[in-house]
Design goal:
The chain is built from 10 helices and 27 strands. The chain has a 7-stranded antiparallel sheet with strand order 15-16-27-18-23-24-25, with helices on one face. The protein has a 6-stranded antiparallel sheet with strand order 17-26-19-20-21-22, with no helix packed on it. A 3-stranded antiparallel sheet has the order 1-8-9. A hairpin with a 4-residue loop joins strand 23 and strand 24. The N and C termini lie far apart (111 Å).
Length: 594
């Protein structure tokens, strides 16, 4: 029993509001403590609840503060808290039986009977709790002080009201055990602790707020909601860690792939040098054989000609001698000697007919020339296929004439037309929407959400969400342009950063010769053969965007990515640079191969 000195009406409301039912709830089962035990970290739970919580786990952890214990703590029943809890249970039963009346006894007499307020405890229960929780301390001042509270049976427990308030506020029991009341946030409106959570408004409230401003809302204990959030935090944290691990594995996978590609590139270089070296060696050998055959033919003809020349020289010499003899004979006056000399000079004249004799040489190299030409033609064809062959690991078998049974990229041709609703206000489109160029002035066009308002570009009318597609664009005569594809959700207003991470897969030309791919960072490429027509091939399902020199049928570059939404053909003729870049980009018909 307790004896309060003067001014009991000021002391009792404070005593009645000292604790609430929620402070006797186990944070695991959310029911009033049953044989409560306290962990080394200071939090309290039902003995059965914490035993089930730790059953089968390797490391024991506090359900509230998540502190880990190296060894499973030996838990003992918190007798003080159990007695307080039992008193609280009895109080709840008595309050239900008497209709919620609070009895206060001052100086051994019942002075008033009034209804218990919500979440208010009786004075008797408060005194029992006070004896258990507060240690005796020396008295201060006189026992007759009008502001002194005296507890029967402990004359030394003389507590000033302000000291009692301070000591009670310093130590209290919550769902998790002893805690400091100074750390509990207060409701700025009612100056009560924020122990509830309104799920409808998503804010912490006090009990009085719940009775007034949030009557029709979904209200739950703040600590229970925080426990639910902690569980969700653990799930989210685990998910984030898994995402980090997945991305780290992908980083390692990409690095490993790059190392393999580097090694494969070195092997391919060696094979290329070996193949080209063998080809050159074969050509040099063929050249040596051909030169040897030509030289042998020349020597043979030369030897034959020399023999003929010697024979002709002898006959000429002999004929000259006969001619001189006959001229001398013609001057002889003696007929007898003249007849005899003429008869000798007129016999055994060279009678070989040299009319049809000539010197010719058939080197018989035509067949060898044909063989060499066929070899060169075959080599040229193989060299043209090198980009397709050596880039196949990167492009997953480039569709550029890979196999007779496989479609060529030209067979995936689509009819692309420009979408005027996306065109920048300076861009001018032809009537058939196949050409686009940049004008000097802005046109009066509606500022719809689809339109680009800063970058001079335009999208195709139709987007792609699957399949293979190919189109060609005439770029000859221009100094600057951008071509490729863009995602449907790309930013179209203000400054834009072109990169695959922002939804742009583009090939660009600047200052006539600088070709770049809009990667992060940009990739620069030197093209010996300047393309006049660019072919763009898209394989949506494989995440592939390839650029070709359409006339030379040579692969320029391939982006590999993953598409999650519709992508559209992208065109930017860039600014006209005072007439230096006023040639339009023209979408041309695709000619199918023979």
């Amino acid at each position: 029993m307790s004896l309060f000195s003067t001014n009991p009406s000021r002391a009792m409301p404070f005593l009645g509001s000292f604790l609430s039912e929620e402070q006797f709830q186990c944070s695991i089962c959310l029911d009033i403590f049953d044989n409560p035990v306290s962990t080394p970290c200071g939090h309290s739970f039902c003995m059965t609840c914490i035993g089930c919580y730790w059953q089968g786990v390797k490391v024991c952890q506090c359900p509230l503060c998540k502190e880990n214990f190296k060894k499973k703590p030996e838990l003992h029943i918190n007798r003080t808290l159990r007695e307080i809890t039992e008193q609280f249970k009895q109080m709840k039963g008595d309050a239900g039986a008497c209709g919620g009346l609070e009895w206060e006894r001052v100086q051994g007499k019942r002075i008033e009977e009034r209804p218990l307020k919500q979440r208010q405890l009786s004075g008797d229960l408060f005194l029992v709790m006070k004896r258990k929780l507060l240690k005796p301390f020396p008295s201060k001042g006189s026992q007759n002080d009008s502001h002194t509270v005296v507890i029967e049976g402990t004359n030394s427990d003389i507590i000033q009201p302000q000291e009692l308030t301070t000591r009670v506020s310093r130590r209290r029991y919550t769902l998790s055990g002893a805690a400091s009341a100074m750390k509990v946030p207060q409701c700025p409106k009612h100056h009560r602790k924020l122990d509830l959570f309104c799920k409808s408004d998503g804010e912490c409230i006090c009990s009085e707020c719940g009775d007034t401003d949030h009557q029709s809302h979904q209200i739950i204990s703040a600590e229970k909601e925080w426990l639910n959030n902690k569980t969700q935090i653990d799930i989210t944290e685990t998910k984030i860690q898994e995402m980090i691990e997945q991305r780290l594995r992908k980083v390692e996978e990409i690095k490993f792939s790059l190392a393999e590609i580097k090694m494969a590139a070195e092997r391919e270089k060696q094979d290329c040098m070996r193949v080209i070296g063998a080809l050159l060696s074969s050509i040099e050998h063929s050249q040596a054989e051909l030169l040897e055959v030509i030289e042998m033919r020349r020597r043979s003809v030369e030897h034959q000609a020399e023999g003929m020349l010697r024979e002709l020289d002898l006959e000429v010499t002999e004929l000259r001698m006969r001619s001189a003899a006959l001229a001398k004979l013609a001057q002889t006056d003696c007929c007898i000697s003249g007849l005899r000399s003429y008869s000798d000079n007129n016999t055994h004249l060279p009678d070989k007919d040299w009319t049809g004799v000539s010197v010719n040489c058939n080197f018989e190299t035509k067949s060898m020339y044909n063989s060499v030409c066929q070899l060169l033609e075959h080599s040229r064809e193989e060299l043209q296929k090198l980009p397709e062959i050596y880039l196949s690991p990167l492009t997953d078998q480039s569709p550029l004439k890979a196999h007779p049974k496989v479609k060529t990229i030209q067979e995936y041709a689509v009819d692309v037309i420009l979408d005027p609703s996306t065109a920048h206000s300076r861009l001018i489109l032809s009537e058939d929407r196949k050409k686009v160029w940049c004008g000097e002035k802005h046109q009066h066009v509606p500022n719809n959400p689809e339109r680009f308002n800063r970058v001079v570009c335009v999208l195709g009318q139709e987007g792609f969400t699957s399949g293979q597609h190919y189109w060609e664009v005439e770029v000859g005569g221009k100094t600057d342009w951008d071509l490729g594809v863009a995602s449907h959700s790309v930013n179209r207003k203000g400054k834009i950063t072109f990169s695959p991470s922002n939804g742009f897969w583009l090939l660009c030309l600047r200052d006539r010769t600088n070709y770049t791919f809009r990667t992060e960072p940009s990739t620069t490429l030197t093209l010996n053969l300047k393309p006049q027509k660019i072919g763009v091939f898209v394989d949506y399902d494989k995440g592939q965007v390839s650029f070709y020199n359409a006339e030379a049928k040579m692969l320029i570059y391939t982006f590999m990515d993953t598409f999650s939404e519709a992508i559209y053909p992208f065109f930017s003729p860039c600014t006209n640079k005072s007439g230096k870049n006023d040639v339009p980009l023209t979408i041309t018909p695709v000619l199918l191969p023979d």
